[in-house]
Amino acid sequence: FSSSTPIKATLFPGDGIGPEIAESVKQVFTAADVVIDWDEQFVGTEVDPRTNSFLTWDNLQSVLKNKVGLKGPMATPIGKGHRSLNLTLRKELNLYANVRPCYSLPGYKTRYDDVDLITIRENTEGEYSGLEHQVVKGVVESLKIITRKASMRVAEYAFLYAKTHGRKKVSAIHKANIMQKTDGLFLQCCDEVAAKYPEIYYEKVVIDNCCMMLVKNPALFDVLVMPNLYGDIISDLCAGLVGGLGLTPSMNIGEDGIALAEAVHGSAPDIAGMNLANPTALLLSGVMMLRHLKLNKQAEQIHSAIINTIAEGKYRTADLGGSSTTTDFTKAICDHL
Amino acid sequence: FSSSTPIKATLFPGDGIGPEIAESVKQVFTAADVVIDWDEQFVGTEVDPRTNSFLTWDNLQSVLKNKVGLKGPMATPIGKGHRSLNLTLRKELNLYANVRPCYSLPGYKTRYDDVDLITIRENTEGEYSGLEHQVVKGVVESLKIITRKASMRVAEYAFLYAKTHGRKKVSAIHKANIMQKTDGLFLQCCDEVAAKYPEIYYEKVVIDNCCMMLVKNPALFDVLVMPNLYGDIISDLCAGLVGGLGLTPSMNIGEDGIALAEAVHGSAPDIAGMNLANPTALLLSGVMMLRHLKLNKQAEQIHSAIINTIAEGKYRTADLGGSSTTTDFTKAICDHL
Ligand SMILES: CC(C)[C@H](C(=O)O)[C@@H](O)C(=O)O
Ligand SMILES: CC(C)[C@H](C(=O)O)[C@@H](O)C(=O)O
């Protein structure tokens, strides 16, 4: 790719603050001379019978065709029997690995310095099976499903990621002392893959201990790979270490080279349309998308501009203690380019 | 009770560092003039067929008879098919609520000041059902079981605890956006109980968000009640905020007034017998046991002596950056009484 060939990418602006922060991404990309032909997708207003979701068949086709996309926050419309939009995307597009880097932003102080963690979450099964039953009244069960297939591919992704990103260590997070069969299978897959990467240090850490150690000393960890729910929990915990989900990007990886970058924070309906939202998480997710497209130079430029704007501290949105609007913050980033 | 009537209580010294830290508790209690007639229980060397565990029928009877006890760390001997000792205790004694207070120890600095949290964990079911199946090769399932009975009793315990301890707020932690039926039932029980305590502020918090907020600002929380695995995770996270499991006590509550206080850290076989272990978690668990016995004066005396010894900083064990032996640290506490 060169920056002058327009690349087609799906864009889900999402709802709530989604359109505003998506607009910020477009402006910053344009200012950085990144020419993306955005294929904008809006979630349906009625349930599409082909997906049993407000997410339509066409929405899904767009990602499958473009193979790359960026997604803002989407709140699932209330109503029974329809799947969460986020989960529909993950399942239907087979987005099997969710990568969430969490690193301290220079200039934005939290209790922790120099955090630099990558959580890699299995994204399609586990506790998210949706299989739940009431057996007798007052006795309910949920099924956690772990498969060798999904565990192998996420483990393989994690070790390949570690290797290609110069990372030294992969920690597999589990509770196999209690769920010996499910988490045991997950660990066995990690063991098998780890054996193919002797240069990467590999360890297994029980989830409760992992959370305690992350809070005490996050520098103990590097890349973390884990089943779905543990990934949900630990990626939020890690985000908290560096300031929260408003500052952390993510990318979902599917088969056949599909990649959907995503801001995982909520749609913040209370401030929607008020030009108050912080676009950082979506911008940094956009940077991950550019790196995936091998537009590394532009990715680094944009990344530096975001980091420097926040570090400078003159333009910050309210969630970071500033009083800038979304558009002023965006303009400041463009000026840094 | 008066301090001169000997009270009978079960003591499981446990293994690894267990006997050393149990000895510390005995010495401190004696120095504080607390007369306990300890009924010492040692886990069997063979599996007891009546419990299918190394924990014997007699071990369990001791707690059922005395109704109160203190437990050190126990590592489950390796071998297939035998239940974890800790889980056997919880299940067989129906220890339905696990209470873990986490508070900043004055004088022991961490990244967080003034942490003051109580996690109350459902302790008998959920993800700890032990029900796991391989359906087809490479496809494994674990069952999470949530019952109305267990959810109601732990919710009731949590709100009663909040009320009797002057707490203002109870947060029910869940993932009902994904596990609508199981965690949904848990929440419904919390809702029902909350309605009977209008003076206690009640909120529901999704577990991922809870972990992020705990890390960013633990002062947002007060009492937290949750299903088993979330309690396992969040109580360790909270312990991490104040220095780790070596400093945090716990107590398990059963039906008919049974209470088993417990240090939840590991048995640290690497330093066992070396007079290096930190007895603080077991000592503070002992203090919880004394409060349960309404020996409040002695409980407060011992509590202050522990806190003051740590705050003074002259005698600290290696895990807290000092170089004191277990016995010197214990003696320092006794001297503070
Ligand atoms: C919104 C919710 C269904 C989702 C999840 O649980 O995966 C979110 O927490 C996330 O991490 O993307
Ligand atoms: C040792 C283990 C089985 C136990 C648990 O998972 O409950 C421990 O982590 C705890 O919190 O007491």
UniProtKB/TrEMBL annotation, chains A, B:
<dbReference type="GO" id="GO:0004449">
    <property type="term" value="F:isocitrate dehydrogenase (NAD+) activity"/>
</dbReference>
<keyword id="KW-0560">Oxidoreductase</keyword>
<comment type="similarity">
    <text>Belongs to the isocitrate and isopropylmalate dehydrogenases family.</text>
</comment>
<feature type="domain" description="Isopropylmalate dehydrogenase-like">
    <location>
        <begin position="8"/>
        <end position="333"/>
    </location>
</feature>
<keyword id="KW-0809">Transit peptide</keyword>
<dbReference type="GO" id="GO:0005739">
    <property type="term" value="C:mitochondrion"/>
</dbReference>
<dbReference type="InterPro" id="IPR024084">
    <property type="entry name" value="IsoPropMal-DH-like_dom"/>
</dbReference>
<dbReference type="InterPro" id="IPR019818">
    <property type="entry name" value="IsoCit/isopropylmalate_DH_CS"/>
</dbReference>
<dbReference type="GO" id="GO:0051287">
    <property type="term" value="F:NAD binding"/>
</dbReference>
<dbReference type="InterPro" id="IPR004434">
    <property type="entry name" value="Isocitrate_DH_NAD"/>
</dbReference>
<dbReference type="GO" id="GO:0006102">
    <property type="term" value="P:isocitrate metabolic process"/>
</dbReference>
<comment type="subunit">
    <text>Heterooligomer of catalytic and regulatory subunits.</text>
</comment>
<keyword id="KW-0520">NAD</keyword>
<dbReference type="GO" id="GO:0000287">
    <property type="term" value="F:magnesium ion binding"/>
</dbReference>
<keyword id="KW-0460">Magnesium</keyword>
<protein>
    <submittedName>
        <fullName>Isocitrate dehydrogenase NAD-dependent</fullName>
    </submittedName>
</protein>
<dbReference type="Pfam" id="PF00180">
    <property type="entry name" value="Iso_dh"/>
</dbReference>
<keyword id="KW-0479">Metal-binding</keyword>
<dbReference type="GO" id="GO:0006099">
    <property type="term" value="P:tricarboxylic acid cycle"/>
</dbReference>
